[in-house]
Amino acid sequence: MSGTAAGSSRTGLAVRVGVVMGSKSDLPRMCKAGETLSELGIGYEMRVISAHRTPEEAAAYARGAEERGLCVIIAGAGGAAHLAGVMAAYTILPVIGVPIASGALGGFDALCATVMMPSGVPVATVAIDGAANAGVLAAEIIALSEREVRERLVKYRCSMAEKVRQADARVQAEA
Distance (Å, rounded) from C-alpha 112 to C-alpha 172? Predict the structure, then answer.
C-alpha cells in the first residue's frame, strides 16, 4: 500500500496521491480511497502518521509531498482528528479530510475538527468514513490538468449511471 523509493505504487503507477491515517485502526475505512484511486488508474501511497504521536513525521511528510510528486493528500483521522489540518499547515497541495467514526460521538467530533480550519488553511472534507469520495475528489483535482484522468472519471460516472438504470429496469420488471 505504500509507494516504493522510486515513487511508484504497488500497481506500478506513479504515486500522485498520499493517503495518510492517524492510526492503523483507520485502515479498513481508508482502503476505500485506495480502491477508488486504483479503479481510476491513479497511483497512491498509504501511511500511518499521527498528528499527536509523531508530529515531526507528519510535518516532514507534508513538507516533502510536492517534491515527491504528490498532487493531493487524503488524511483520515478520528476523535480529535487534527491530521488533515496538520497536513494543510505544512503544504500548499490540496488536502482532503476524512473524518473517521469512532468513540462516543460516532465521528461527529472528527467531522467538526476536520472542517473547522482557520482562514487560509483549508481542508476539503468529505462525509464521515467517506474515503471512497475522497478518492473521487482527489481524481477530480488531478483531472483538471490530466486529460486521461478526466476521461477515466467520465467513464466511471457513466458506469455508475448505467448501474442505476439496470437496477431501475429490474425493479420495474418485478413490479
Answer: 41
